[in-house]
Amino acid sequence: MAIRKAMVAGNWKMNGSLELVKQMSDAINNVKSKKIDVVLFPPFPLVSALIASGVSTGTQTISEYKPGAFTGEVDAQLVKDLGAEYVLVGHSERRSIYNESNSTVAEKFSRAQQVGLTPILCVGESESEQENGKTELVVAAQIDAVIEKLGVAALKDSVIAYEPVWAIGTGKTASPEQAQNVHKFIRDKIAALDSDLAQGLTILYGGSVNEKNSELLFAQTDIDGGLIGGASLKADSFSAICESAKGTL
Ligand SMILES: O=C(CO)COP(=O)(O)O
Asked: Which positions does UniProt annotate for substrate binding (predicted)?
């Protein structure tokens, strides 16, 4: 029996349209199940339309600041007021393209929880870090930045997504064993501080997940679902991934 709530999340990145909202909400409303949470992360302008269509919704980032003179930024409270439930923090594209540091990510995590949004903390190593055997070091530092700022208890109302950077958008998925090893490392690391919290923590895998590889990934003990990029833009693929989660999680 599953001890954790499973989740399949779709990160649209800078893609999508009102037409896609229609297609994906129809598809998701067909596969909805009590066994899994299905959540989409569209660009900001599509958030309200997606919520109105009955899909559980999050945003891809938020500002770490409270409302004020921050042109172009989006306040977490506004996101919450619109009816969103989740927010991605620390996605590797935010870290690498927009220079978000571990400490900025921890600030965003904190701001999300202040307003009642559930943060999904994205962690993962680059290709060179992986080749140099630094995966655990990098992932631990990304998680420790949050624990040092907020204490381990803050992880209780959150989700962690392990997304190796070398697997994002490349078609090079981590093998189920490779991903399981890192997920187990994450869970054991948190269990050393709070065992019950770690056992209840949903940890997602992301990086070139598709309808062909999702079942084996989701069958791993410490993989509780997926954070899907490219395949979340195709109704057939995303529905099939959700279906595979129902069987294995
Ligand atoms: O970055 C991702 C989800 O946040 C993964 O993207 P892909 O599934 O396209 O590799």
From this structure: 11-13, 169, 208, 229-230
Pocket of ligand 1 (CB under 6 A): 11, 91, 163, 168-169, 206-209, 227-231
Which contiguous run of DSSP H or E holds residue 118? strand 118-123
Ligand 1 centre distance from Cα of residue 68 (Å): 32
Residue ID of nearest Cα to ligand 1 atom 7: 229
Determine the residue type at 16: G
Ligand 1 atom with least separation from CA of 207: 10
**166 has binding-site annotation:** no
Buried b (16+ CB within 10 A) or exposed e, 159-187: bbbbbbbbbbeeeebbebebbbbbbbbbb
Which region, left, alpha or beta, applies to residue 54 given φ > 0 means left and ψ of -120 to 50 means alpha? Answer: left
Active site residues: 91, 163
Name the CA dihedral angle for 217, 218, 221, 224, rounded to a multiple of 10 degrees. 130
| Residues in contact with 71: Cβ distance below 8 Å, sequence separation at least 6, in sequence order | none
Give the closest residue to 232 by CA, choosing from 6, 18, 27: 27
- pLDDT tens sequence across 10-51: 999 999 999 999 999 999 998 888 889 999 999 999 999 999
* Cα–Cα distance, 146 to 81 (Å, whole number): 25
Alpha-carbon distances of 232 from 39, 77, 132, 167, rounded to whole Å: 10, 26, 31, 16
Go through the domains of the chain in sequence order and give each one's CATH number: 6-248 (3.20.20.70)
Reported as a single tens digit per residue, the pLDDT across 104-129 is 999 999 999 999 999 999 999 999 99
